Amino acid sequence: MRDFLGKDNRFGGLAVKIAIGVVVGILIVGGAIYFWPKEGNEGVCLAPVEGMVTKVIDGDTVVVEGGEHVRLIGIDADESGSACYQEAKTRLEELVLNQEVRLEKDVSDVDQYNRCLRYIFLNDENVNLKLVREGLAIARFYQPDVKYQEEIALAEREAIGQEIGCKWNKEEFGEQGDEGNKTEFQWDDLVTSKLGYDVVDACEAGQYLGREIIVEGMVADAYYHSESNTVFLNFEEAYPNHCFTGVIFSSDLYKFVQHPEDYYLDKTVRITGEVEEYQNQPQIILEDPSQIEVGR
After folding, report:
1. Known catalytic residue: 79?
2. d(CA 118, CA 112)
3. CATH code of 158's domain
């Protein structure tokens, strides 16, 4: 009798252990499935083809229903703190906020920040084009997304020629239109009295190779190179027609503001450091935020 009960108890204990093992296994597998990185959404735009604009971030970026951020292709509006920022943002709000719009893709689906890249149409009118035509944004295209480049570039030329909008109408908006008046900018840190360096216009920096100077100019074009994690700030003209570049390498990028290629774009800045030459173009390597100052 004792042998029988002993065997029964042993079998009962084994069954309990098996049951516990099964439960633990299920929990482990279930947890792995739940916490496993979800692939497929990274780098993919989930915005609807037609949907409502729920928020306007600035003059060239909106949020649509579902929470996707949409960057308008082919244009560039001022960032916060720049002259025409509020005018462009307000106008875009007037046009599309709480409106049903159509989002049209070109070639690229998203940018390096996973924002959807789209043309926005309201009642079959190209809103991207309209903002440029009204002088509230400039034309800016990057390959391969150039479907409406000809139309938007023409609208920009007409806006400039007719001095339309905040970007180009100096009489109505003062010197905040177009390039602005450099003599109005004030500087706190990057000045000769503090550093002892000469202040040089960006397009003259090539004459000072090997010297430490202060370079002043407008960041007309900025680019984030995802493969090298490097930011290039091109002065006065867009690449490859720029005359000077400020470079922030990957090792120092974490020290600067988030997305410096957006933050400094279209702003008049001063940068300081030793002027080097790279591929026949002058440049200064920015290793610390103290080397760059935005004019005010």
Report:
1. yes
2. 14
3. 2.40.50.90
